[in-house]
């Protein structure tokens, strides 16, 4: 296995676990793990900012995940010709 594939595998695994955690942190219809960690005050100005930043981080993590999959597709060694 080449060093490129090892690095991409590590990045892919970290981004996959991060994506799972970030999606679980999102609140859905007023409940969710983000309410548990962010507090239950709906009138707080910071809550909207936390959700917006959480959205941005989730999108970046998703892009990294998809990009690593594309690199896998392009760099994975093919052991034989397809018949």
Class of secondary structure makeup: mainly alpha
Q: What does the overall shape look like?
A: elongated
Mean pLDDT: 80
- Poorly predicted runs are none
State the distance separating the first and last CA atoms: 24 Å
Cα-atom radius of gyration: 18 Å
Annotation, overall tally of beta strands = 2
User: How many separate helices?
Assistant: 3
Largest beta-sheet characterization: 2 strands, antiparallel
Helix content: over 70%
Strand order of the largest sheet: 1-2
Strand content: under 5%
Order of helices and strands: HEEHH
What's the short story on this structure?
This protein is mostly helical. The protein is built from three helices and two strands. Strand 1 and strand 2 form a beta hairpin.
Give an account of the 3D structure.
- With 83 residues, the protein is mostly helical.
- Helix content is 72%, strand content 5%.
- The chain has three helices and two strands, in the order αββαα.
- The chain has helices spanning 3-25, 33-38, 45-75; strands at 27-28, 31-32.
- A two-stranded antiparallel sheet has the order 1-2.
- Helix 1 (3-25) packs antiparallel against helix 3.
- The longest helix has 31 residues, at 45-75.
- The chain is elongated, with a radius of gyration of 18 Å.
- The two termini are 24 Å apart.
Please supply descriptive tags for the structure shown above.
single chain; 83 residues; mainly alpha; two-stranded antiparallel ribbon; 3 helices; 2 strands; 72% helix; elongated
